[in-house]
Amino acid sequence: MKKAPIPKYEQERLELLQKLGILDTKPERRFDLLIKEAVERLQVPIATISIIDSKREWYKSSHGLSDKEGDRATSFCGHALLTKVLFVIEDTLKDDRFADNPSVIGEPFIRFYAGMALFHRDSNLPIAVFCIKDKKPRTLSSKEIQIFIDIASRAEEGFDKKL
Fold first, then answer.
1. What are the C-alpha distances in Å from 116 to residues 19, 56, 100, 106, 163?
2. CATH fold of the domain at 10-157
3. Torsions phi, psi of 85, nearest 5?
């Protein structure tokens, strides 16, 4: 398993998260509705909006997981945070970075992952990740990719706060 990488701009990103004050906050209907839409329209058992701090990924909103946070080092979203495009793992067991990941070989037995970093508009730093997960391998159709990008864009707009 490959641990989630740390970006070179990590200190600046963590400072932004602190200024925004979004970690460990109460659920917000706007994000919960986006997660519900993703689960229904993309037919997946798990979806989250994850905020990545120095040691963990914390779920601002989630469906299909009992935990409210996970270890950043083993998180799929920790990898997606560093990309500017859709990050997709069609079959986790066929990807050396994730084949022996605790979430793949144990509960919740993730076999598919798609995630997109959400950027703060003023700083252009990634602050969160919108993702979907499935317990079976899959390939997203072009229509599903468009739905995913649309929902991710609306989630990103939900974090637009002026500093």
1. 22, 17, 22, 24, 23
2. Beta-Lactamase (3.30.450)
3. -125, 175
What's the burial of 122, exposed, middle or buried (CB within 10 Å: 0-12/13-18/19+)? Answer: exposed
92 in Cβ contact with 135 (< 8 Å) = no
pLDDT by residue, tens only, the chain of 163 residues? 899 999 999 999 999 999 999 999 999 999 999 999 999 999 999 999 999 999 999 999 999 999 999 999 999 999 999 999 999 999 999 999 999 999 999 999 999 999 999 999 888 999 999 999 999 999 999 999 999 999 999 999 998 754 4
Query: In the chain, what are the domain boundaries?
Result: 10-157
Q: Which amino acid appears at position 57 of this protein?
A: E
Rounded Cα–Cα distance for residues 87 and 105 (Å): 21
Torsion of CA 134, 160, 28, 3, to 10 degrees: 40
**Nearest CA among 104, 108, 58, 99 for reference residue 78:** 58
Residue 46 to residue 36: CA distance in whole angstroms: 10
Give the separation between CA 147 and CA 45, rounded to whole angstroms.
16
